[in-house]
Predict the structure.
Amino acid sequence: MSTGTASAGQISGTRAMLRRFRHHRLALAGTVVLVLLVVACFGATWIAPAKQGVQDLALGPTAPSWAHLLGTDELGRDYLSELLYAGRMSLAIGFFVAVVATVVGTAVGAVAGYVGGVVGEVIMRLTDLFLIVPAIAILALALNGLGSSPVTIVLVLSGISWTYIARVVRSQVLSLREKEFIDAAKVTGTSTARILVRHMLPNLAGIITVNISLAAASAIIVESTLSFLGFGVQPPRTSWGNMLSQASGLVGTPQVYLLYFPGLFILVTVLCVNFIGDGLRDALDPQGRQL
């Protein structure tokens, strides 16, 4: 096959994938909402109604109004602004955990599947060991001992999030290594590293992409849980999770809206990411080519 024909085939395949993704209405809506949320959070310096941390103690907590769309907290800070600034931390942690965990999990799974034998079995038994460890307890202990900086949170969350993609990648590689194009690469003397990078990874692009989206949603939830329990992001840094924690004592009071809005932002974000993951999975599924 000529280079031109191969390129045309790739373009056609990409167009077919995008067409299938567009047919997934929830995924398309989730993409639009998530993009708007990311732009609003990381563009909060220009978009937010007030600067981060600006207090008006005389104003105090007020219910949502035209002046403050999501109300103000007990320090008189505009709550919408605080949520947008806090979203930077939650979204960044979710993204970096998803990328790091996927890279590590893909590398581990690919090596375990391709090399096989004793090495592969040892790697997967270690992976199983990570799977049976109670994640929240280990995370709490690790963060309590190492500190709760954003970098530490990303590394610790990534350290327990790579196992799922490792198992999935291993199963795919076990299947791919029996294919004729892999045998042909071996015959020509292609190195193991080159086979994994040039021949295996392109065939794993679908599950890797889907895993990144789903891992991001999981990381946002876990970070919020840890922050709610007091082990995650610590003041003066803010995330949606520790905003939930700070408002947890307001149930049954007129200021309970301070609890609802961070939870709503987390819910919307996770739903959008999950919808996108579902859409990508359907779009990249070879069985969906008839669409």
User: Anything to note?
Assistant: The domain at 13-288 is CATH 1.10.3720.10 (MetI-like fold).
